[in-house]
């Protein structure tokens, strides 16, 4: 099997990406480093013509770029993906049951192959999540040191402590292929998960093989201490009245007053609307033993 590693040498604090480079060299794996944001797309696109397996080494942003590169080469059916967690949060790798850099190499060689869903937002792909609103606006100016210390979602929560002053965009949300009107109002945060689940605490892996997205609309900031430990769990408590939640194969989000910031696996864009859907089982990934093909159902209705 021909393996190529596409690596973001600036991922995380630099330690894991370096260890990964050494482990890859020991195994004779060809390592190709990105020079700037977006470069991993071009590297993966070129690698897709030569490799059977591409190993994305970095954080969620790097996995996203590699998947987009393979899609651009029209090779989603031909190339399998392995992930080496060497970014800051590595949420997607955790969702695949990958525990460490060393473990990732074992999984790349002997892990089970599973066909997983990819999220689509207009013409962009996302593997883990598409976050809209304040949370994406906050990560636009996330300070790397703070993000490394407490995690990007927790960091974004800090800004929610000012949320009573924040006027969210006016949204219209339609679901399903028939685009039935579902919800409208001002939302603080819109969380759309493909690989990532946002409610209920504990495990964050969503069902990656069901052809559906798990969606949470956070309508307003409840009075909780956002800087205290467990703030995220309290905000996303499954029965909280400030939340609307649904699963759907397709979601059309339109803002009627001003554009909204969205984060596709960490990449920030501004949009007046997005049409989110799923490409079911679009790509083969190597997964660890802790990966759950059928995680417990999302909070039952
Ligand atoms: N050589 C490079 N120099 C600067 N930035 C890069 C380079 N290669 C990739 N990037 C950018 O760095 C961003 C973050 O990368 P990545 O997601 O891999 O790591 P992270 O932010 O440390 O981890 P996580 O996403 O898990 O929190 C990506 O959006 C990518 O475009």
From TrEMBL:
The keyword Transport does not apply. Its EC number is 2.7.1.-. Residues 1-125 form the DAGKc domain. It comes from the Archaea. The keyword Amino-acid biosynthesis does not apply. Keywords: ATP-binding, Kinase, Nucleotide-binding, Transferase. It is an enzyme of class 2 (transferase). Residues 1-36 are annotated as: Disordered. Pfam families: DAGK_cat (PF00781), YegS_C (PF19279). Residues 18-35 have a biased composition (Basic and acidic residues). GO terms for molecular function: ATP binding; kinase activity. This is Diacylglycerol/lipid kinase family protein. It comes from Halosimplex aquaticum.
């Amino acid at each position: 099997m021909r393996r190529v590693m596409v690596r973001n040498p600036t991922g995380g604090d630099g330690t894991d990406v370096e260890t990964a480079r050494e482990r890859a060299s020991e195994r004779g794996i060809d390592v190709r480093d990105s020079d700037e944001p977006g470069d991993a797309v071009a590297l993966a696109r070129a690698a897709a013509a030569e490799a059977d397996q591409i190993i994305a080494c970095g954080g969620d942003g790097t996995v996203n770029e590699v998947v987009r590169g393979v899609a651009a080469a029209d090779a989603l059916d031909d190339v399998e993906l392995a992930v080496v967690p060497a970014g800051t949060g590595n949420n997607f790798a955790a969702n695949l049951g990958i525990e460490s850099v060393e473990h990732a190499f074992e999984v790349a060689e002997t892990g089970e192959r599973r066909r997983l869903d990819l999220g689509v937002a207009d013409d962009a792909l996302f593997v883990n999540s598409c976050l809209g609103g304040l949370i994406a606006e906050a990560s636009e100016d996330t300070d790397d040191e703070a993000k490394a210390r407490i995690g990007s979602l927790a960091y974004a929560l800090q800004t929610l402590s000012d949320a009573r002053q924040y006027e969210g965009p006016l949204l219209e949300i339609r679901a399903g292929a028939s685009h039935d009107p579902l919800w409208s109002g001002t939302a603080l945060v819109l969380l759309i998960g493909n690989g990532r689940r946002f409610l209920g605490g504990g495990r964050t892996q969503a069902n990656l093989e069901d052809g559906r997205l798990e969606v949470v609309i956070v309508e307003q900031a409840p009075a909780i201490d956002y800087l205290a430990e467990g703030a995220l769990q309290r905000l996303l408590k499954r029965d909280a009245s400030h939340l609307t939640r649904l699963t759907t194969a397709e979601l059309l989000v339109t803002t009627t007053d001003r554009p909204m910031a969205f984060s596709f696996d960490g990449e920030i864009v501004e949009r007046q609307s997005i049409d989110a859907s799923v490409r079911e089982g679009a790509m083969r990934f190597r997964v660890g033993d802790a990966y759950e093909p059928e995680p417990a159902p999302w909070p039952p209705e």
